[in-house]
Amino acid sequence: MAPPIPEILELDPAAAGMLDLLVELGHLDDRLLQIVNDRLLDLTPAPGPEGTGPVHPIDLATLKRVAAQVIQENIDDADPEYRRALEREWPLLFH
Questions:
Q1: Got the DSSP string for 17-84?
Q2: Whether the Cβ atoms of residue 11 and residue 58 lie closer than 8 Å to each other
Q3: What's the DSSP call for residue 95?
Q4: What is the pLDDT of residue 51?
Q5: Burial of 70 (0-12, 13-18, 19+ CB in 10 A)
Q6: Which of 10, 15, 75, 83 is the most buried (most CB within 10 A)?
Q7: Does 22 score more than 70 pLDDT?
């Protein structure tokens, strides 16, 4: 029996850039980044038999939707200064 194929996400260039930006701006720490990755993996269809099926890259709209959900679900844990910064940046990042 072959070893299991590791789960690797493929992001399109815009989605990869957005993910990097969210990390650099401090909106996704290691814990939140892991949650985003797990949820994106849940949305990604499994490849075909023996890894031959097509797996399409995650697009920007999907990444934004998942990241926004994760950030909003965890906002209660954030300090007030971070919340104010997020309120200012939210329209630029997610609209």
A1: HHHHHHHHTTSS-HHHHHHHHHHHHHHSPPPSGGG-S--PPBPHHHHHHHHHHHHHHTGGGS-HHHHH
A2: yes
A3: -
A4: 56
A5: buried
A6: 15
A7: yes
